[in-house]
Amino acid sequence: MIAEHAIAKLSPAQKRRRNITHALIAVAIIVIGIVAKGQFAWVAKFPRKWVVPLKNWITDFFEWIVYGVTFFEGKSYEFVPTDVTRGMIKIFEYQLSFTDGLFFNGFRIGVDPLPWITVVGLMAILGHWVAGWRMAIIAGGSFLYLSLFSVWAPAMDTFSLVLLTVPVVFVIGLFLAIWMSRSRRIENAITPFFDLMQAMPPFAYMVPIVVLFGIGDVPAMLAVAVFAVPPVARCILLGLQTVPHEVIEAGEMAGCTPRQMLWKVKVPTSRSTVLVGLNQGIMQTLAMIVLASLIGASGLGNELLNSLQTLRLGQALEQGLAIVVIAVALDRLSAAYAHKPKQYIDKSLPWVQKHRHLVFAGGFLVASIAMAWFIPSLRVLPKEWPLTTAPMWDAGIDWVLVNWYDNVQGFRNFVLIDLLIPIKKFLLSVPWPTFIGLIILLGYRMGGWKLALTVGLMITFPLLMGLWKQTMITVYMIGSAAVICIVVGFPIGLLAARSERLSRYIILMCDFFQTFPSFIYLIPVIMLFKVSDISAIIAVLAFALVPMVRYTNLGFRNVPFNIREAAIQQGATRWQRLIKVELPLAAPEIMLGINQVIFMALFMVAITALIGTQDLGSEINRARTGNKTGRALVAGLCIAFLGMIADRIIKAWRKQHDYQQSRNT
Amino acid sequence: MSAENAGNDVKISCRNVWQLFGKGADRFLAKHDNKPTMGQIVSAGLIGAVRDVSFDVHQNEILMIMGLSGSGKSTMLRCITQLLKPTAGEIIFNGTDITKVSARELNNLRRHKMGMVFQHFGLLPHRTVLENIAFPLEIQGLDGNERIAKARELVELVGLAGRESYFPRELSGGQQQRVGIARSLAVEPDVWFLDEPFSALDPLIRREMQDEFMRLQSKLNKSIVFVTHDFDEAVRLGDRIAIMKDGELVQIGTPEELVTNPADEYVRAFVENAPKAKLVTVGKIMNELGSVDTATEPVLVGAVLEDVAKRVMMSESAIPVSNKEGKLVGSIDREKLVSVLFAV
After folding, report:
1. Where are the domains of chain B?
2. What is the extent of the structural domain holding A550?
3. CB of A345 within 8 Å of any CB in chain B?
4. Could you give the CA distance from residue A76 to residue A375 in angstroms, rounded to a whole number?
């Protein structure tokens, strides 16, 4: 912390001198790198024999755990580690079989699953209880859509998985957050793990999960939990840490024990933030559902993968939409619940009146099941009823392919040959000492020696792992995608900030693209652009553009009104206002947006590897098919480190920026 | 109620209290023998929020801690209540040094002997008025019906009857603070702490709440430590005022003592606009008896200037001053009166 403040305190002359020194060092690093590349073979190509065989060690370790070790060998209670892991699976599988039975499987003893009409009705009642008629229509309507568009069974399968996963994720997140709120030290110790879990592509940790836990719904749940717990815990932690100071003091003065303080003061006071954490858990879970189906999650994700593999695009699109619909319904419900003010209920009223929604739901449950007994189409929709739009989408895509193909090819060749390939070649030709040196210099410039050391270690890791070339290709893909995201996303975000009407549509689009399964982007893009870097970049773009738009919008909206007014009063033109007043004030949010863009792009890189790029993603992908735990984890770590380098540097920049601003005011 | 008849019945005694913020503050303090100067504190990179403050709070008195923002007054209050552990010094509460008691004992003390009101109310947003007031009783372990009954009494007392089931966000600032006051009184505390309780309120409401506070105190007769940045409020409500500046106690005394005998320029600047005529008594400024026409009807030594002003101003010559027993103890003339009231 001292370091950034020291930089901010420098006089203008000292700052200029510092800039010149850094520029000279940068030139020196470049020149030395180029010269050394000509002189020494080990600079031009990192020697294979220097590579640290970490991935083999990890793979061996996991093999030893799975096949090589037995505890209490020879005793009657001897067991192997997989007994433990499989046992854990059993516990959850038991729970899951219950929700599965309730929603789509039925129970073996001859009880049918809930009729669709019951589920739709109950969701509507739930919606009404949370936030009135509008929410009743959204919640009921969403589930009605699922039943009408022939995705009912897989949708309920997914829904049942979500219903079990979300509470588990929430409870783990809650307790981690409580633990972290105990002390700064614990928080600082856990945060890097959260960073890593969030920056690591899910494919990478799916491999060890499969090795330890096998394939199926519950291992998939575990993978989802790894992905979803950090943001949930972070959100709840934020809530616990922002309980007003005086409320805590009031609790202390009342003589609260630590336990009373937590459960009677802190948690209830931060109720809405804690519930936003729950909301995050739901969204993250649904975002992972398709990926999770790669290791055996049944339901919509699985169906979607099948459709994609058989190139039934229209159907895949509909299944993707179904995931979005579930996500939107649960998102709106939980968000409304989070902001629902606690209402006073007159305790003297009779029980029935105090719990009108519950009574009504119970009544509806019985009545609808009875009705469905007599009218089978209320139980399961007849085959010929469900609607589908799939043929329309298929026709549309065919049309685009036929009519646009030639134009698109021209565009594709231009971008690929004249833009992307040169950039890629350039990056690959940069000597590794130069690249590492420049990253360290940047780290030093932004956050002093500590940051320089951190980013230096992180960027050296891929080199030592022998993955330098793949890493550079990843950097090139992410870099290109990020630049395009910024160029395209910034004006859209600015537009949204300027117009209330447009903003609503733009934010709606953002919500949609964020929950729409990212896989689906791949197929049309491949059809148009074939298997190439450009397809991968476009697929990344569709996903990673969202945060850029969101945060740009947010940044400009957060510019205080009085400052804008002052600028207008001083006679600034629109352009001057934008460049001199609003942009500097919105910069921290925009940088946060770029930070998110990089993370999302890295997330997509692992997915785009499915269409045959040659970066770190493909490394993971190849490891996945062979259950090579070490290979997957090492490549995953490389990706995670790339994200964390960007994250750390941008955060350090923000700290400097904030500090300077606070000094100015 | 005033300082004189409070006698020696000391409720809380603060002895050489220090509160330094920053790394290694206690080691720093020990190194400088508990007497570092401001310069030493600053150059060590520490913040001296409270520096070597000592004073007593007597039974049934209202002690005001007055100071501008950053003077350390709220920090001092938090040292007394142990919300902040002082870097050094003793806080003797009913004879025990509470800086040294265990967490359990401290909690016990807070549950039964202390009540506190906060500037921004510090109400629990998820609880109704009634549940907020009952909160300290719940923590005490009182059972449901008892604490609700008790809380209802307090709702009555602070004039919020009919709003028991409102949530804090549905109340105005003044009403929220009434809840805060009721909550702090729920456990019938020995000492009542108020941290700028009316600062966040509009001037009119503030006035009303001050009256309300006086009404409650006349009923309850608590020992009170009241923090404020408003000198008028301090004068209006306090029996004694402790003025703090940069973490130090500048002066402590009755409003009259501060007005007639300010310790330095800083205190003088505050008292300049104080309503002296309402604060200063005849006895404080009277001359020696001298050659006064003893036939004139005397004024009482304990009367405030406002009450005698007209007579003194109308009289050509000095007027004798007598004590309660009717014995003449001094005299007062209009020159003296004018010089005190208008500082000429």
Report:
1. 3-113+189-269, 278-342
2. 394-429+468-664
3. no
4. 57
pLDDT digits (tens, 9 = 90+) for A526-536: 777 777 778 88
Cα angle, residue A544 at apex, residues A206 and A642 outer, rounded to 5° = 60
Q: Say if residue A469's pLDDT is above 50.
A: yes
DSSP 8-state assignment for residue A245: H
Provide the pLDDT for residue A207: 85
β-pairing verdict for B62-66 and B240-245: parallel
pTM of the model: 0.81
Q: Using a CB–CB cutoff of 8 Å, tell me whether B261 touches chain A.
A: no
Q: How far is CA B25 from the centre of its chain?
A: 29
Give dist(CA B269, CA B229) in Å, integer: 14
What is the phi/psi pair of residue B264, to 5°? -155, -175
Closest alpha carbon to A117 in A481, A330, A388, A385: A385
Query: Which secondary-structure segment (H or E) carries A333?
Result: helix A313-339
Q: Is B183 on the interface with A (CB under 8 A)?
A: yes
- The token duo for A136 is 């009743």
- Do residues A415 and A609 make contact, with C-beta atoms less than 8 angstroms apart? no
CA distance A255 to B82: 11
CB neighbours (10 Å) of residue B59?
Answer: 16
For B156-257, strand residue ranges (E) read: 191-195, 223-228, 240-245, 248-253
Could you tell me if B225 and B14 are in contact, meaning their C-beta atoms sit under 8 angstroms apart? no
Query: A253–B166: do the CB atoms touch at under 8 Å?
Result: no
**From the CB of residue A88, how many other CB atoms can be counted at a distance below 10 Å?**
14
A30-46 in b/e burial notation, b at 16+ Cβ within 10 A? Answer: beebbebbeeeeebeeb
Q: Which of A96-105, A159-168, A588-597 shows the lowest mean pLDDT across its residues?
A: A96-105
CA angle A238, A244, A248 (to 5 degrees): 105
For residue A77, give both structure tokens: 């209670």
Do the beta carbons of residue B51 and residue B34 sit within 8 Å?
Answer: no
The residues facing B63 across adjacent strands are: B225, B240
Pairwise CA distance, residues A279 & A412, whole Å: 40
CB contact under 8 A, A247 and B124: yes
Task: Dump pLDDT digits (tens) for B287-326.
Answer: 887 777 777 888 888 888 888 888 888 888 888 898 888 8
pLDDT tens by residue, A318-359:
888 888 889 889 988 888 887 777 666 666 777 777 788 888
The partner residue sitting opposite A255, judged by closest CB among B111, B124, B184, is B111
CA separation for the pair A319, A190 (Å, rounded)? 37
Distance, C-alpha B21 to centroid of its chain: 25
**CA–CA separation, A348 and B164 (whole Å):** 14
Q: How far apart are CA A431 and CA A46, in angstroms?
A: 10
Q: Give the C-alpha separation, A247 to B127, whole Å.
A: 12
B82's torsion region: left (phi>0), alpha (psi -120 to 50) or beta? left
Q: Predicted ipTM?
A: 0.84
A446 and A412 assigned to the same domain = no
| Contacts (Cβ under 8 Å, ≥6 apart) of B41 | B20, B28, B47, B48, B51
CB distance B110–A260 less than 8 Å?
Answer: no
B124-158: pLDDT as tens digits: 988 999 999 999 999 998 888 889 999 999 999 99
For chain B, the straight-line distance linking the first and the last C-alpha, in angstroms and rounded, comes to 33
B140 and A CB contact within 8 Å: yes
CATH 3.10.580.10 fits B278-342, yes or no: yes
Q: Chain B closest CA to A597's CA: distance in Å?
A: 37
In CATH, which of 3.30.300.30, 3.40.50.720, 3.40.630.30, 3.40.50.300 is domain B3-113+189-269? 3.40.50.300
Distance CA A615, CA A606 (A): 9
Q: Chain B within 8 Å of A284 (Cβ-Cβ)?
A: no
Q: What is the pLDDT of residue A1?
A: 39
